[in-house]
Specification:
elongated, eight-stranded antiparallel beta barrel, mainly beta, 17 strands, 2 domains, about 50% strand
Length: about 240
């Protein structure tokens, strides 16, 4: 559950990139500084931040990478801010690439595994404005309040209809997943399919309406069950467009 930005600095600056990274527990300003490479796979950058005492400390390393499928450049970072190591990628949106901007958005590294939804509670409520939803999802290990914000980058049917966002301690939006509007092939009823990134893996759940809720604005979140009703492929749920 991470979000943030990276911005390319002038060539004369000490740090190649400056930016920030956010989580539900922290908001940290970061810098990427060039380091000497010892081999081809050695990191390209040291990632640094300033601690509470005002001392600059190294919190990780980063590599310049190129997407195998897209061919687009991105930056892979491995960080540790005192809560255990984690990995994120800094990627560019289609708009940034078209504008030839060197601004990047930090997103979670997409998990290779999907965690079992098991015992999950939650609720989703349609808002009166902006075609948005507010909701929560919880179990014994986590409790998240989130928003579903309409995906303005949707250009294909398989792209998500919404991005799922939570807030950092300073109120910065953190994208933690994607959601699709769907219709049950069996019942014909509308529901929402959600893919949420958690520290334990990607969590898939559905938001459905029972008989009492149908026609209203409230949905109940239930564990995902694989069936023929699931038409959307949620595999790309954390990308910025798809």
């Amino acid at each position: 559950m991470f979000a943030g930005t990276l911005n390319k600095n002038a060539d004369t600056a000490a740090a190649v990139f400056t930016g920030s990274i956010h989580n539900t527990k922290f908001d940290i300003a970061i810098q990427l500084e060039t380091r000497a490479k010892m081999s081809e796979r050695s990191p390209d950058y040291d990632v640094t931040a300033v601690n509470k005492s005002g001392r600059k400390v190294r919190i990780g390393t980063a590599w310049n990478e190129t997407g195998n499928t897209s061919g687009n450049p991105y930056i892979s970072m491995q960080l540790d801010v005192g809560l255990g190591p984690f990995r994120v990628n800094a990627v560019q949106t289609q708009e940034a690439r078209k504008a030839k901007s060197e601004d990047f958005e930090i997103i979670p590294l997409v998990s290779n595994g999907t965690m079992k939804s098991g015992s999950i509670s939650g609720e989703l409520t349609a808002m009166d404005a902006d075609n948005a939803f507010a909701g929560y999802i919880a179990n014994m290990m986590f409790d998240l309040d989130f928003m579903l914000i309409e995906n303005d980058y949707k250009t294909e049917d398989t792209h998500p209809d919404y991005r799922i966002e939570v807030s950092s301690p300073k109120g910065k939006p953190i994208r933690v997943g994607s959601a699709w509007m769907a219709k049950s092939n069996r019942t014909g009823h509308d529901y929402v399919s959600l893919l949420i990134n958690t520290p334990d893996g990607d969590l898939r759940v559905n938001a459905v309406q029972n008989e009492d809720q149908r026609g209203g604005q409230t949905f109940s979140i239930i564990p995902f069950v694989q069936s023929g009703d699931q038409e959307q492929d949620a595999g790309g749920g954390l990308s910025l467009v798809a």
